[in-house]
Design brief:
By secondary structure, this protein is α+β, with helices and mostly antiparallel strands. It has three domains: 358 residues, 7-stranded beta/alpha barrel (Alpha-Beta Barrel), CATH 3.20.110; 108 residues, Glycoside hydrolase family 38, central domain (Substrate Binding Domain Of Dnak, Chain:A, Domain 2, Up-down Bundle), CATH 1.20.1270.50; 223 residues, Beta-galactosidase, Chain A, domain 5 (Distorted Sandwich), CATH 2.70.98. Helices cover 30% and strands 21% of the residues. It is built from 21 helices and 36 strands. α10 packs across α18, α14 packs across α15 and α17 runs antiparallel to α18. It starts with a helix and ends with a strand. The N terminus is likely disordered. It binds zinc ion. Zinc ion binds next to loops.
């Protein structure tokens, strides 16, 4: 029998996710229990970067006493839900997790590289939180302590543990109706809050500029033509007036700008940062996509940004508040990551409009985001959801965009779609202008529980010229001065993200929220489920870079040595990079960068191998080359080695190539091919195929399908007609293990199930190569098995967390397509079907017993989200699925987790052997 998930959960409690992402501890425990022997095989020549497990100090943060909210407006639904959740969490002893790969050593090394003080910093921060929380438990009145640096009240934690919003339930139950709300189209007629001397209202207007590191222009083009002058403009504008503030997110741009500045400008910037006029938010290399990215890459982009800040500005400038206004949906993995890096709060914006409305209705737009597996809330992070349609100025001052747009002073005549132009603020009109804006602030305040309002002031690539910057800063300052002088209780000023969060956190009982925010819709039935698959080739290239980088780091490469490749991987995590939502020339630029990064990492590996002076390597001499490579950035990589090769296993567990077993983190000589299509030698698995088409019929069913669509583009999937792929001119070889058609090929390899995992599982790899060259077709594979999953469908989040969806026949199909960064699974009481993929794509379970996984999509038309083109630059793309059919299902009332076998198979698929051979012409 396979281990049921409950058993893995118990073992999983050995692992503290807060300390490490990938559980060496847990893995070892698993391995020991299943009797895995990891003695080095005799082919091992050398174990690079001997792993030394360092003891981890885990400081548990105490949470304050949960208090009941007097003003609780809990609906019955949520009360019941909460009870169910609490009950479930007590009954199921579980920490949940995780399939991420980074080892404690690597993590520790990276932290150490960034300076010993930074490691201590993390621990001290946690200790400080402990002290703060303890003091509030003891009854020290919150808010009286002052933060010595900021002068703000130390944030206290007021969680309402009785109020838990579970996104999985909400997604299943919400009507998703789309009534016209009036001026706030997706909301309702909001009434302003009362403000007077006894009921003051603080407003922070937060100037920002959203600078995509690649979208319509390449990263370089944007920097040269826009971003460079934006940062210069902002620094000048801030220097003019101490009351002005600005926040900056993308360190990729900032680092480049910094290189070009003289010492006096750098000193000025440091002063602005130090005095809180300028503030980094998140401070990642980019603002990463959260649907297609793996946690490993999300963390690298954060490390690259923070390392740059640490080395060039100083530890104190590293952000504590995260800002994510444009990624197309949000994952709990990101919340976990920010919390792990010491963030105190975060802000998100692209959440389904109906979810926003529901959260706003209950004043739940601010919550502690809790991991589904976290029993004690150790990883909670305070989260703010922006309420309206967009992050631009018309949709951030309050519910009425026709009013807010009048206060975007960059816009000239006719540039507000609501036909009311901005008017310059003067002493003559200030009273009328200020009160008009004030009304919007008071209405926005009605959606939140605190008496502080956050008002972003910016848009894409804003503050490009001094004229533009001055028009915003000057007009707003006149309004602020008027309001502060003439309206009792008004405190309006420019602010930063930390100004806002420091004011609101701890001032009200805050609900908890579990789950994630996919699939995003901005209007009507426009669901952003196309980008889960768009530019599949580049999504695959992203993982290729990730794999080789991971392997190099596991050999001992430091983040310093691998800085270049790490930054290219980081750049592509941008929400128009790995999402596949950039212009063709930008996609090609990203690909060139990643291709260069792969080559650079391979060069580092070869240098490392040559330095190692072992006999196996010296036999290859100077001609050693990586076996898997491509001739061009967007060409499929091929294997150009044959016969004897040098193999490197980046994992800690052994991996095999044909008859050779390579111990973890070791080199060995072996012979390729490592695998050939067909059954494992001596296998009892009966694999059957349709004799005509070659498609698999047993042990599970394989169908080649496509969506014929009439609309949709890089972002949106809009279903049309679903039809089987026309299998003309097919060649079926090896009974069906190999199928070749002109544009769609695949071969099948049965994988050996290591004996320690029992005999009740079948593992089969499907390797597809598709070349979609017909417009408005979306190609996918449907896998089917005799499983009654009752609409329950599980996917992963960033190769780290899991999400559970329930099919709704009353909802459009495009709303039920989800990101599959690495995994999709269905199960019933008896059986489970799990698909693991080498890269990200969309997935759905539209009929019981089936999982659809996209291979690629090609769209003729634009989908009106600003890109201005379709997706027609498809390349021949290879996708490998590892399909695992296991006996022993899962109770849908319990949290989903995967079996130890799936975990092992996942590791091996994501981190296969690196091969090096002697190149022969
Ligand atoms: Zn963006």
């Amino acid at each position: 029998m396979l281990r049921r998930s409950g058993e893995t959960d118990r073992k999983a409690t050995l692992f503290t996710p807060g300390s490490q992402r990938k559980s060496r501890l847990r893995r070892k425990a698993n391995d020991e229990e299943i009797g895995l022997v990891t003695t080095p095989s005799d082919v091992v020549e050398k174990t690079p970067s001997a792993s030394v497990s360092r003891p981890k100090k885990v400081v548990r943060r105490k949470t304050s006493n949960p208090t009941r909210s007097n003003e609780s407006i809990l609906s019955m639904t949520f009360a019941i839900l909460t009870l169910v959740c609490c009950f479930a969490s007590i009954m199921t002893v579980m920490l949940f997790l995780l399939m991420h790969i980074e080892t404690p050593d690597l993590q520790m090394k990276d932290l150490l590289y960034q300076g010993e003080h930074s490691l201590k910093g993390v621990l001290q921060r946690k200790e400080k939180q402990l002290v703060d929380a303890t003091q509030s438990l003891l009854g020290h009145s919150p808010g009286l302590q002052r933060d010595i640096h900021s002068g703000h009240a130390v944030q206290t934690i007021r969680k309402d543990e009785s109020n838990v919003i579970d996104m999985r339930e909400l997604n299943y139950q919400l009507p998703f109706s789309n009534e016209d709300g009036g001026v706030w189209k997706q909301g309702w007629d909001v009434q302003p809050v009362l403000v007077d001397a006894e009921h003051p209202l603080t407003v922070y207007v937060i100037p920002h500029s959203h600078c995509d590191p690649g979208w319509l222009k390449t990263f370089d083009q944007y920097f040269q033509s826009q971003t460079k002058s934006i940062i210069t403009t902002v620094v000048d504008a801030l220097a003019k007036d101490k009351r002005r503030k600005f926040i900056w997110a993308e360190i990729s741009y900032f680092a480049w700008w910094w290189e070009e500045q003289n010492e006096s400008t750098r000193q000025l910037v440091k002063r602005l940062l130090n005095e809180g006029q300028l503030e980094f938010v998140t401070g990642g290399w980019v603002q990463p996509d959260e649907a297609n990215s793996e946690l490993y890459a999300m963390e690298i982009q954060l490390q690259e940004g923070h390392t740059w800040i640490r080395e060039n500005i100083g530890e104190e400038a590293i952000p504590k508040y995260a800002w994510s206004i444009d990624p197309f949906g949000y994952s709990s993995s990101a919340a976990w990551l920010w919390q792990k890096y010491g963030f105190r709060a975060m802000l998100i914006q692209r959440v389904h409009y109906a979810i926003k409305k529901e959260l706003a209705r209950k004043k739940h737009l601010e919550f502690y985001w809790r991991q589904t597996w976290d029993e004690h809330g150790e990883h909670d992070i305070f989260t703010h959801v922006m309420p309206f349609f967009s992050y631009d100025i018309p949709h951030t001052c309050g519910p009425d965009p026709s009013v807010c747009c009048q206060f975007d002073f960059k816009r000239g005549r006719g540039q507000c779609p609501w036909r009311k132009d901005p008017i310059r603020v003067t002493t003559e009109n200030v009273a009328e202008r200020a009160m008009l804006l004030w009304d919007q602030y008071k209405k926005k305040a009605a959606l939140y529980r605190s008496n502080t309002v956050l008002v972003p002031l910016g848009d894409d690539f804003r503050y490009q010229t001094a004229k533009e910057a001055e028009s915003q800063y000057e007009n707003y300052q006149i309004i602020f001065d008027y309001l502060n002088k003439n309206v009792p209780g008004a405190h309006v000023q420019f602010g930063t993200l930390s100004d806002y969060f420091k004011d609101v956190m701890g001032t009200f009982d805050t609900p908890l929220l579990k789950g994630s925010f996919f699939t995003y819709a901005d209007v009507n039935e426009d669901y952003w489920s196309g980008y889960f698959t768009s530019r599949a080739f580049d999504k695959a290239l992203d993982r290729q870079l990730e794999r080789v980088l991971y392997a190099a780091e596991s050999m001992g490469g430091s983040s310093h040595e691998l800085r270049g490749p790490r930054r290219e991987l980081a750049l592509f995590q941008h929400h128009d990079g790995v999402t596949g939502t950039a212009k063709t020339k930008v996609v090609e630029d990203y690909a060139r960068r990643m291709f260069g990064a792969i080559n650079e990492t391979h060069e580092w590996m070869l240098a490392f191998i040559k330095k190692s002076q072992t006999t196996s390597v010296s036999r290859f001499g100077e001609t050693l080359k990586p076996c898997i490579s491509a001739s061009e950035a967007r060409d499929l990589s091929i294997n150009h080695c044959s016969g004897e090769v040098l193999l490197y296993n980046p994992l800690e567990s052994p991996q095999r190539c044909a008859d050779t077993t390579i111990a973890g983190r070791s080199f060995a000589l072996g012979f390729i091919p490592c695998e050939i299509p067909g059954n494992v030698a001596g296998s009892n698995t009966v694999i059957e195929f349709d004799p005509k088409t070659g498609l698999m019929t047993a042990p599970f069913k394989e169908q080649w399908m496509l969506w014929k669509v009439k609309s949709g583009g890089a972002y949106l999937f809009v279903p049309g007609t679903q039809i089987p792929y026309d299998m003309k001119n097919i060649t079926v070889e090896k009974e069906g293990f190999v199928i070749n058609t002109e544009k769609w090929k695949r071969f099948i390899v049965e994988k050996e199930v290591p004996s320690e995992y029992g005999t009740n599982a079948i593992v089969i790899d499907f390797v597809y190569e598709v070349s979609v060259d017909i417009d408005n077709e979306e190609w996918f594979v449907r896998f089917g098995a005799d499983i009654q999953n009752n609409g329950y469908f599980h996917t992963d989040l960033n190769g780290f967390n899991f999400d559970t969806h329930r099919f709704r026949s009353d909802m459009p199909i495009q709303s039920q397509v989800f990101p599959m960064p690495t995994l999709a699974s269905i199960d019933d009481d008896n059986m489970r079907l799990t698909i693991i993929s080498t890269h990200a794509q969309g997935t759905a379970s539209l009929e019981d017993g089936t999982i659809d996984v996209w291979l690629d999509r090609r769209l003729r038309q634009d989908d009106n989200r600003g890109l201005g083109q379709g997706v027609q630059d498809n390349r021949l793309t290879r996708t490998r699925f590892r399909v695992i059919l296991e006996s022993g299902g899962h109770d849908h009332a319990a949290e989903f987790d995967v079996s130890p076998l799936v975990r092992r198979m996942w590791d091996e698929l994501q981190h296969p052997l690196e091969m090096f051979g002697q190149v022969t012409s």
